[in-house]
Write a structure and sequence with these properties.
Helix content: 10-25%
Structural class: alpha/beta
Radius of gyration: 14 Å
Number of domains: 1
Strand content: 25-35%
Order of helices and strands: EEEEHEEHEHEHE
Distance between the termini: 18 Å
CATH superfamily: Nucleoside Triphosphate Pyrophosphohydrolase
CATH class: Alpha Beta
CATH topology: Nucleoside Triphosphate Pyrophosphohydrolase
Largest sheet: 9 strands, mixed
Shape: globular
CATH architecture: Alpha-Beta Complex
Number of strands: 9
Number of helices: 4
Length: 150
């Protein structure tokens, strides 16, 4: 698999998780959007892999502590950039648990959710495939490689 793309139209969408509680950290979709949640969108630099872009953003920009990125990668086309691709990566703490400050580093309005809570709240989640993707991850029925989210 080659996850480096030189065209600069690609983004990575890190899913920050708490494995022990099966929770994911989401940010509000927009200031005027109620009950809509999404992942951060990190532009990939020319020649940069999606794993490297996620690490760069979470470690250098958001000041996250040591992290681990799953080998599972979700891939889908970008709706806003016809030639672009977005990659969804699962990220967890290398220490086992995130410090409480991680939520605020991502966004002051970020919230921890389980997929069941999001479904019961009838929340709109972007990308739409995220809940199934995460349920597959939790249950271990997705391969440890790139999968299509389309």
């Amino acid at each position: 698999m080659n996850d480096a793309h030189p065209d600069g139209c690609d983004v990575v969408r890190p899913v920050v998780i708490d494995s022990s509680k099966r929770m994911l950290l989401l940010i509000p979709y927009g200031p005027d959007e109620e009950n809509r949640w999404t992942l951060p969108t990190v532009p990939m630099r020319s020649g940069e892999t999606c794993r490297r872009a996620a690490t760069r953003h979470l470690r250098r920009v958001a000041h996250f502590p040591a992290l681990r990125i799953s080998s599972l990668i979700g891939r889908r086309s970008r709706e806003d950039e016809p030639q672009g691709v977005q990659y969804v990566l699962v990220v967890r703490s290398a220490a086992g648990n995130w410090p409480p400050s991680v939520r605020f580093a991502l966004s002051p309005e970020a919230c921890w959710w389980t997929t069941a809570e999001l479904r019961s709240a009838d929340a709109h989640v972007e990308p739409a495939e995220l809940l199934d993707f995460m349920d597959g991850y939790w249950e271990g029925w997705l391969p440890d490689e790139e999968v299509s989210l389309e």
